[in-house]
Write a structure and sequence with these properties.
The chain is of the alpha+beta class. The protein has three helices and six strands. A hairpin with a 2-residue loop joins strand 4 and strand 5.
C-alpha cells in the first residue's frame, strides 16, 4: 500500500493549538523540525505542518516556515489536474501566504478545499476562493 501525503495528513485532523501560554507538543515539533526559533504554537504553522508530513514520507519539502517557499518545490501543475495525493496548494494571504494539501476543486464555485495546518488554529479541511491560488505543486507522482 502506497501512503500518500494526503492520507498521512488526514491522521492529524483535529490536532489544534492550545489557547494561552501552553503549546501543543506535536505542533511545536513540526515548527522546530528545521529550526529552533519558534518557542510556541502561536506563530503561523501551515508550512511547518506541510513540511512535517513531507518529511515523514521522504518527499521534497521547502524546509521553511514561509508558505510561499513551496512555490519552488516539486513540479507545477494546473489546479484542474490536482489530485488528493501528493499535491500542495499555495494561497495568497495578506502579509504572506498559506499552504496545505489539495483536497478538491470545485470549478463551478471557484473554490478549492485544502487539508492543512493552522486552519482555524487546527488541522482540518477548509475551503478557499480559487482566486487566491498562487500555485499548485506536485511533490511526487
Amino acid at each position: 500500500m502506497n501512503v500518500t501525503a494526503y492520507d498521512l495528513a488526514q491522521r492529524f485532523v483535529g490536532v489544534k493549538e492550545i489557547a494561552g501560554a501552553s503549546s501543543t507538543p506535536i505542533i511545536l515539533a513540526m515548527l522546530q523540525l528545521d529550526g529552533t526559533w519558534p518557542k510556541d504554537d502561536s506563530v503561523p504553522w501551515c508550512s511547518a505542518f506541510t513540511n512535517f508530513v513531507a518529511w515523514l514520507l521522504r518527499l521534497p519539502r521547502s524546509k521553511s516556515l514561509a508558505a510561499r517557499s513551496w512555490l519552488s518545490i516539486g513540479r507545477p501543475i494546473p489546479i484542474e489536474d490536482a489530485i488528493a495525493e501528493n499535491d500542495v496548494v499555495v494561497l495568497e494571504r495578506e502579509g504572506g501566504g498559506h499552504v496545505g494539501f489539495f483536497a478538491r476543486y470545485e470549478q463551478t464555485m471557484q473554490t478549492v478545499w485544502i487539508l492543512g495546518g493552522n486552519q482555524k488554529d487546527s488541522v482540518c479541511v477548509e475551503d478557499f476562493p480559487a482566486a487566491r491560488v498562487l500555485g499548485v505543486r506536485r511533490l511526487a507522482e
